[in-house]
Bardet-Biedl syndrome 2 protein homolog (Hipposideros armiger), 139 residues
Amino acid sequence: MEVHFILFIFKVVIWLNQNFLLPEETNIQNAPFQVCFTSLRNGGQLCIKIKPSGEITVNTDDIDLAGDIIQSMASFFAIEDLQVEADFPVYFEELRKVLVKVDEYHSVHQKLSADMADNSNLIRSLLVRAEDARLMRDM
């Protein structure tokens, strides 16, 4: 099992060297280890941590960057089925706020639709009364 893990670490190092601008060849012999980068997309932090169990953790606040990293790793390691856990509290809070606004807009839309139906019925009854008044010449 130790040989498989060493090969895994070796492949991770190859992937790191192929996908990131490193000042020198990264030569890592054992786990756990962690590499951190500054994202050029938004200036945020990106950390990739490898545990002795083979679990890889990607820490970043950028959901798109995390998706790209996971997709690149899965492609490089030829992984077709991958169990992933993600937690992006900033994005989830933003999504929650948007959903609250959508719910508010939906409530306003329903109220306006009901008011419009009420006004339409009022206009219809007033038109009937106006036509009756016209026929009776009651101006």
Remarks:
- The first strand starts at residue 33 and ends at 38.
